[in-house]
Amino acid sequence: MNTSAPSEGGSGSDAEVLARYSGARLRAAMARPYLATALFSMIPVLDERVPDMSVDRSWHCRANPRLVSSLPPEQLAAMWIHHVTHLLRGHAERADVAGIDSGDVLNLAQDCEINDDLEGEGIALPEDAMRPSKLGLEPGGFFEQYARVLGGIDLVQELPQLGDCGSGAHGSPREWELEPQGSAPNPSGTEAVPVGVSSVEADLIRRETAQQIVQLGTESGHLPASWRRWATETGEGGTDWRSVLRSTVRGSVGAVAGRADYTYGRPSRRAAAVPGVVLPSMVGRPAAVGIVVDTSGSMDEGQLGAALDEIDAVLRSGGVREAEVTVFATDSAVHTVNRARAGHEVELVGGGGTDMGKGIEQAVSAPHRCEMIIVLTDGETPWPERAPPVPVVVGLITKAGRPAVVAAPSPPPWAATVMIR
Ligand SMILES: [Zn+2]
After folding, report:
1. Which terminus of the chain is more solvent-facing, meaning fewer CB atoms within 10 Å of its CB: N or C?
2. Is the pLDDT of residue 273 over 80?
3. Is residue 145 assigned to a domain?
């Protein structure tokens, strides 16, 4: 979010500034207890390269020390609430599929989506924080709608001071986010920047927060309508796992088939079916794809079928022929290897233990030599310690009615994980 440029001459040692920064987070959590879990999952980092405050996809929340020293505490707390809202509402993930190519427009539209809600709740935003009314837009909209309207405006001329809320908002990495986590020094001190929140953990935090809001909503009438709407959608699986799964699988297939440099300039034939979204074309040689399916007794058949049908659709539209796809039905061993890839063709055999590593191992070995692997599992499985030599997408099928934290053991960091509800 853009605020007045941090003033010179901020006072205090690094430790004092960090204490002030963390204190503002505590203040935010006390003002909005239902956001406490999410706020305390964020990792505060001070960094002079950050223009004011920004978040990344791993939930680091970086701030310029001068901003922290100069902003009144209640406004600093409002900045925390603003940035945790970017993360909770999945702005980066929505930006990935929104098909809007200007980061400036995206960030501005996202700030409009957030700030009119916060203002309606009486949160003390900085004076120059962006609001829909300042741009002649209706309040209460989603950023995707705002961005389409704002796309026609010369932003740089109209608004010389644009905010940069980081890749956790608009999705594009910023230079101050690029040090490897857990190894690089914190530019403001000597400690390493801690490893952040994984996509699976982020999803759990969102659902936990949504549950708290839903509970609060029935107990008291004081909850802002915007959060109630969000919580209801999130609780009901409002985050569209299908689109995330499709884009993840499409990206992996593209990368292994030598299409990593595919361009958005060459229109996809599917594009016409998705108004407003330009899909990258997938051209080039076909990739050998392995689908490892967890057939253990604990799997939900309906969700598995739905996931397989989505994968089938994206592979077909990407020109991956049936002959290049192999399905490995796996529990504690690989039971069947075949070409069935539509949901209704895969039989769940049930049975004892589960080890998805067995399926992965067989998929990468002769004679199959799959070049990318999609694993569909409920996550109750050990994983290979070392990353397989090919990209792996894990579709993590979560079970309705089970506590969120138990429902999903984290898959390993070498896999791209999509939560399937
Ligand atoms: Zn923002």
Report:
1. C
2. no
3. yes
Q: 4 lies in a domain?
A: no
Question: Regarding beta strands 325-330 and 334-338, do their DSSP bridges make them parallel or antiparallel, or are they unpaired?
Answer: antiparallel
* Distance from the alpha carbon of residue 405 to the mean position of ligand 1, in angstroms: 28
pLDDT of 266 reads 36
Residue 2 lies in a domain: no
The structure tokens listed for 378 are 């409920």
Q: How far apart are CA 315 and CA 208, in angstroms?
A: 33
Contact yes or no for 143/92 (Cβ under 8 A)? no
Judgement on whether residues 369 and 252 belong to the same structural domain of the protein: yes
Residue range(s) defining the domain that contains residue 270: 241-420
Q: Report how many domains make up the chain.
A: 2
Task: For residue 407, give both structure tokens.
Answer: 């429902």
pTM greater than the 0.85 cutoff? no
Asked if pLDDT for residue 322 goes beyond 60, the answer is yes
CA distance 235 to 232: 5
Query: How many Å separate Cα 126 from the centre of its chain?
Result: 27
Query: How much distance in Å is there from the Cα of 172 to the middle of ligand 1?
Result: 13
Please indicate, yes or no, whether residues 39 and 93 belong to a single structural domain of this protein.
yes
Give the residue, 189 or 115, on which the prediction is more confident: 115
**Sequence-distant (≥ 6) Cβ neighbours of residue 206 within 8 angstroms:** 38, 88, 90, 234, 239
Q: What is the pLDDT of residues 107-129, one digit of tens each?
A: 999 999 999 888 878 888 877 78
For residue 217, report the distance from its CA to the centre of ligand 1, in Å: 26
Q: What mean pLDDT is reported for the chain?
A: 77
Ligand 1 center from residue 312 Cα (angstroms):
37
Q: Are residues 284 and 300 located together in one domain of the fold?
A: yes
Residue 169 alpha carbon to ligand 1 centre in Å: 7
pLDDT in tens, 32-68: 888 999 999 999 999 999 999 999 999 999 999 999 9
